[in-house]
Design brief:
The protein is α/β, with parallel strands linked by helices. It is built from 10 helices and 17 strands. Strands 3, 6, 7, 8, 9, 16 and 17 form a 7-stranded mixed beta sheet that branches. It has a 6-stranded parallel beta sheet with strand order 12-11-10-13-14-15, with helices on both faces.
Length: 345
Amino acid sequence: MPKRLVFSGPYQVEAISYADPPLGPRQVLVRTEWASGKHGTTTAMFDSGVFKGQRFDQDLRLFVPDETPMEPSGFGKVGTSGVGMVEAVGAEVTRWRPGERVLARMDIAETNILEEDQLWALGEIDPTLALCIEPAYVSFHCIRESGLRYGDSVVIIGLGALGLLAVSMAKAAGADRVFAIDPLPGRRKLALEYGAEAAFDPRAGDAPLEIHRATGGAGVDVAIELSGVVAALQDAIRSCRVAGTVCSAGFYQRDAQGLWLGREWHHNRLTMVVPHGCGWGHPPRDFPRWDARRAHEAIVSLMRQGKLRAPGLIDPVVRFDEVSEVYRLIRDEPDRVVKYAVRFS
């Protein structure tokens, strides 16, 4: 029987066997060759206070009391994206044939079953770049929904996969000045390679003050916060110029101790947005012109044209039976993992 990964506890994964159900008429069975997982948000939720005694009611769009404990499986699949070969198709599938290589949002499993319109042809796209389709979706909407415009200045805070891709996209979108903030030196180095003019360690000094000094005292037009750390949101607020925009894409797991809304937030009259791609059950702000399908199509097209690149971002690449060690590194040596990949063949 095929195997897939599941969370068995904080920073712990294990392989379990499963059986694929029969294909629906428009479904495609893919034999997975490469896969990757989302670890920042998922691992943070193991220690989260957000869901303690609460659940999110999608009809009310409110958190409401609920004492039901959340099990590890409730945090979603281990995997987020994958590359593989079509092995079988449903009776009504017209877009795909067995033997074609595809990319999609997939689990870290030996096989994945997807609807035929949830796949894209791999073509000449490097498989490790294709694995970035899920984080690129969030970064893409950070750039679009923050209102970043040609000639603007921006700081990206939190340089995981989402943040590094946001650095690259901001530069490609015409940002005049791009700054970055992260405590991990390896990630700051990548940000510089992706186009940031300076990358600051928030533990080494007052990074927002340095950004104000670098911009003649004004601060940046847009601050994009992707770490999910409240102190980083405070840095985003402090980095902005008067009437600037904070794009808050981090998933904050505690109450907001240390967030001083009576300081720069109040006096500089800032705007804050949470971009599409974060949370559940909402369309992009420019829906219906843009929806999830169009956004994914655009990301894949930019990859295919070489306009969206991510050299060095996928690291490490491991075998299926080595993923447990990756989660140990994420916990104990985070500078050694930006976004990992599992290679099945």
